[in-house]
Amino acid sequence: MAFFLTLPLILLIALLVLYPAFYSMHLATLNKSMQKFVGFANFTFLFKRDTFWMVVRQSCIFAITAVFFKALLGFIVAHFVHNLPAKGQRKWRGMLLVPWVIPPAMSTLAWLWLFDPSYSAFNYTLSFFGVGPVPWLGDTFWARFSVILVNVWYGAPFFMIMYLAALKSVPDQLYEAAAIDGANWWQRIWYVTLPMMRNIIAITTLFSLIVTFANFDIVRILTSGGPLDSTHIFATWAFQVGIQSSDIPLGACVSLFMVPILAVAAIFILRDVSKRGNEA
Amino acid sequence: MAEVALRKVVKRYDDVEAVRGIDLDIADHEFIVLVGPSGCGKSTTLRMIAGLEDISDGDIMIGGDVVNDVPPKDRDIAMVFQNYALYPHMTVAENMSFGLRLKHYPKAEIKARVTEAARLLDITDLIDRKPKQLSGGQRQRVAMGRAIVRNPKVFLFDEPLSNLDAKLRVQMRIEIKKVHQKVRTTTVYVTHDQVEAMTLADRVVVMNKGRIEQIGTPNELYHKPATRFVAGFIGSPAMNFIPCRLEDVGGTLQIRLTDRLAFPLPPARAARYNALPRTEKLLLGLRPEHLTESHAHLEPGVETFDTVLDVTEPMGMETLVYFGLEGTPVCGRVNPNAGAKDGGPMRLAMDLNNMHLLNEETGVVL
């Protein structure tokens, strides 16, 4: 009986998750024209290509750096907002969420203009200080910097709002007890705030890591992977290989590579969460 | 260990004065209880001593030094909170040693102090548990342990027993008293429960509406209340207040309660109240235990009268009887074998030797 009651959900998951997953695994074992089974040939082909390893590296750099700064920025801003007087807090919370609410495809277009080498607001402003023009999207380093910057700008509000909720759930008396115990501001954060927020930090980081790792739109719009494929991450490269270059099996193969990497991260972080879940 | 002094301490929140100029001297080793109804400013006063609230005016001194602008961590105080405020991610031992670890005490000394405090509070077995695995009473002990290991100048307790059930509260009350007898640290204890205040305190500070109503030993407050508020707040069931006036009848001073009920005052009382104007509106303050069943051999100053009881409450060792005197509800305490019945008649004795006389308008005990 219980099985039948859960059947709709099971069917839904099978249809929307399992079928595409297995279908992409199936695709990954075909040749370019999707006529012949080639086994792991697509994978071995990928392993031999420098671009693939560059994409692996860039995906990791992109995801880890972006998530780190999103978390850091979110944490700092959450503290500021938390300490605002309750009256104006809603207003600030709402405004700070704006980057997260605008569809990234649109907001990234605005950033694309900001990064324009000749006419952009950034380079125009920098010119007053005698700096630049900076080739924001034309240089390997700056292009990588720019895609991460935009991703941080887009994702930090999510961290901010999660951390703010976590901060609000820490009882004030714990801080008062810590203040009396002799903890200074920094020790209060280290010994009270962070341990109390541990689970939220772990879950938010994992969630964001997955989403950031699988990011597509920001890189696609800003650089399309360039210059010289240096900003490609898994999703954009899979798109280029699979759709634009019409090798769907190879594209499926690239995107499948995300699964083991993310699975490992998920296991580690969730294990920690369940271990500590019964404390608070 | 140190004395604590408050000099004209004021706390203002925007347009509200929560504490309106408090003067209080607490001696070394003394156990002081601040008691009063909610919103009387007692917790605010405690939090100002702790440094968790800024003071708007006046001075607070700990050990002779003005600490107005000293942050809590440098005041050398320890505080026990109502909801314990234990760090949920730390074990009992870590909770207790947190303050010492922050001050970089040697490991051996930390261990020795924690072990000693745990022994004192009988929580040695719990030392490796997390707060979540403890009962309310055990958490309360850990919170006290955290205060004791620091060996501070002053202990501050903010309604520490309010979250415990009635039985445990009585038990922990005794526990707190025992601990104080052993460590002798100057203690300021806030509660709204007058029984807690009476049982624990060397001196009780009764607060009302941001001011101190009276400071005194538990017995002083009970037997010589200064105001109607203190008289009514201390003691359970509360003191009766019966409207009355004084009159002279044939050279003796009488107290008239109702048209039909008037008693001559005992000589000592008569001498004390003789100067009062006879027209003044007064209240007779009489504790329920001074309204008992009548019996054959009454002492001088004890007057009898007949009444009809409204309600009786058998408490086992005594029976509380409620009746009305011209609309004023009055409570008495009689022997359970005195035959008090709901709605039944009863002859009661009023012990005027223990009466109080209050000015109805000002509430001052005369």
Protein model, in words:
Chain A is mainly α. In chain A, 78% of the residues lie in helices and 0% in strands. Chain A is globular and about 70 Å long. The mean pLDDT of chain A is 85. With 366 residues, chain B is of the alpha+beta class. Chain B contains nine helices and 21 strands. In chain B, helix 2 runs parallel beside helix 4. The radius of gyration of chain B is 25 Å and the shape is elongated. Chain B starts with a strand and ends in a 7-residue tail after the last strand. The A-B interface holds A 171, 173-174, 176-184, 187, 191-192, 195-196, 198, 276, 278-280 and B 50-52, 71-73, 77-79, 81-83, 85-89, 98-99, 102-103, 130, 132, 146, 150.
Number of DSSP E strands of chain A? 0
Helical residue percent band of chain A: over 70%
Rg of chain A, nearest Å:
23 Å
What does the main sheet of chain A amount to? none
Strand and helix order of chain A:
HHHHHHHHHHHHH
**How many H/I helical runs of chain B?**
9
Structural class of chain A: mainly alpha
The rounded Rg of chain B comes to: 25 Å
The low-confidence parts of chain B are none
User: Structural class, from helix and strand content of chain B?
Assistant: alpha+beta
Overall pLDDT confidence of chain A: 85
Number of strands of chain B: 21
- As a percent range, the share of strand residues of chain B is 25-35%
Shape of chain B: elongated
